[in-house]
Structure of Fumarylacetoacetase:
Amino acid sequence: MKLATLNDGTRDGKLVVVSKDLTRYCAASNIAPTLQAALDNWTDVSPLLEALAIDVEHEAVPCDRFHEREAHSPLPRAYQWADGSAYINHVELVRKARDAEVPESFYHDPLMYQGGSDSFLAPRQDIPLGDVAWGCDMEGEIACITDDVPMGVSKEDAADHIKLVMLVNDVSLRGLIPGELAKGFGFFQSKPASAFSPVCVTPDELGDAWKGSVIHLPLMVDYNGEPFGRANAGVDATFSLADLVAHAAKTRNLGAGTIIGSGTVSNQGPGGDPGKPVSEGGLGYSCIAEIRMIETIYDGAPKTPFMKPGDTVRIEMRDEHNHSIFGAIEQHVVEA
Amino acid sequence: MKLATLNDGTRDGKLVVVSKDLTRYCAASNIAPTLQAALDNWTDVSPLLEALAIDVEHEAVPCDRFHEREAHSPLPRAYQWADGSAYINHVELVRKARDAEVPESFYHDPLMYQGGSDSFLAPRQDIPLGDVAWGCDMEGEIACITDDVPMGVSKEDAADHIKLVMLVNDVSLRGLIPGELAKGFGFFQSKPASAFSPVCVTPDELGDAWKGSVIHLPLMVDYNGEPFGRANAGVDATFSLADLVAHAAKTRNLGAGTIIGSGTVSNQGPGGDPGKPVSEGGLGYSCIAEIRMIETIYDGAPKTPFMKPGDTVRIEMRDEHNHSIFGAIEQHVVEA
C-alpha cells in the first residue's frame, strides 16, 4: 500500500491511503490519525490500512484527488533519522578528490550519522539557505521506516522491521562539513532539514524491484530541469537497508517510526571508474559534490557550483512502466 | 512550576504537575495529555499549567503521592536531543590524557552532537549493557527543553526559548568511541539511550541559581553509593544553554520539544589544575572517563574501571535548603 501525510495545519498532518497511481486518496482518520500513530501500533493498524488501500484501489470508498504538493513528508517530524552510507562509490569519490584513502573497515562497518528529525521539509517546500558560502547540496537517497527494533537485532531479522520505504533529499551544507567533521563530533549545522517523498510505500509495492532490502531501480535526480543523476539504487549497494537497521540497533532499541537512510545513491562507471555525467552519456550523480569530484579528478578543479537561491532539485523513482512510485521531491532553494 | 511524565503504559506517558517539594502531583490531562502536547502549544498551555501548579502548592486540588520511580523521563521520546560541551575542562581532560591539543576554536565554537531521541530510559530504569568491553560510562549533565526556535536565533533571544530545565545521564560507551570518531561521522553506537531526571522545571523555579542560562549549583553524582562528583554547574561553563541553543539553530529551525544538553559538568581545580577526586577532598567528576584521565595523568594508567552489571549511578541537584530540585536519576547497569 501507499501512504501519505497531508498538510492539515497540524504539526503531524493527516494520514491518508493513496492509490497506486497516485491520483486519489482516502483519509485514514478512523484507523489512525497520523503515520506515527499507525507505526506505534503497526501490527494492529496495518491490516486495517491494507484493507482501506484495497477499497481505494477499487474505488469502493469515496476518494479525493491526491496532489503531491499538499503532502508533508510522510513523517513531518520523527523520533529518529539516521543516515548510512550504503553506496561506497560516493565515499570513494569524495575521498579520492582529496587524496584520502577509504579505510578497509568501511566495506563491512557502515558509516552512519544521527540526523536532526524535529522538523522535516515537505517534499515541495523551499530549502531556506542562510548563506551561499555554506555550499548547499542535494543528496538523493532511499530511506525506510521501521517499527520497534530490539537492540542487537540480526541483519536477517532487521529486514522484517522495515515497514515502509520512501525517497529523501538529505540537504547538506558542504561548506560547513570540513570544519564540523574536524571537530570530531560529526555533522550538525552542516545537515539542515531533509525532505522526503510525498508518498511512502510498503516494500511489497516494489514487487521484484525489492530484493535483499535494496530497491533495484534508478533514482532519477534532475537539477534545474535537466537530468543529473540516474544511478541505480540496486547497483553497488555495499550495505542493504536491513544491514543499516541492524547497525543502528547494535547498542540500543530503535523506537517505532525510526527512519534509516541509505546515503547518497552512487554507481561506479562500467569499468569500475567513477562514472560520467548524464550529459556525457553516464549515469550521473545524486549530489553536486560528486560531479565536483569528477571535475576535480579530470580537470583539476570543480566547475559546477553548489546550489544558490533559484536552483531546483527534483528526485523521483519510476517503476518498469515508467510510473512514479513515491511521487516527486521538488524543491527550490531560497534565501533564508 | 515542576512537571513530570508518569508511566501509564503508553509511549508518551501522562503529564502531571508536581509540588515544589516533590511529594505530590495532580494530572494535567484536561490541559495537555503529554509534555510534548504542552510544548507544541506552550504559549496557550503554560499559563494553565502554572495555574494548576499554584493549586497543587496550596492543595486546592486533589493530589496523589508522587513517586520518582513511577516517572518516565519528562519526554519519554523526543523529536530532537542534541548535546553540547559547555564545560571545556571535560574536553581538556579527555584530550590531555592522550596528549591532544584543545583547538582554540573550541572556546568560542561549541562542540555539539546529534543524539538519539527515539526512546529514552526512565530515570530509575536499568542501563542495558551488551558487552562490558564497550566501556559503559555515565555523564552527569544539565539539559533544557525549548519551544519552537527560529533558524538564526541570537544568543540573547535563544534564552527566551528555554522553557524547561532538567538533569541528564548521557550514557556513553567509551570503548566504542575511538573507533566511531575515527570514522568521522561522530557518535552513534557509542551513545545509547540517555535518561533524564524525574522532574523538569521552569527556569524561575531555580531562583537566583539560574543566571545567564546556567544553573549555579553543584551537580551531585554518586557512584555505587559514594560521592563521586560535586562539580558546580555554574563554574567553568564556557557556554550557556542559550549559547548552545543558538548554535543548534544556526542553519535550521528547532522544533518544539528540542532537548539541548550542556555536556558533562566539570570544574577545574583551585589552581586551574584538573582537580581531585571527592575521596581526596576535591570536587570529583561527573563521569568515569575523567577520573581515569586524572589517574593516567598522575599515575600513568587508569585505575577505575568503567561500569559493569551491578554498578549504580545517582545524579541529583539540591537547592540551598538541600531539597532535591529535579528528583534523582538512579540507574543500575544490567546485562542486556
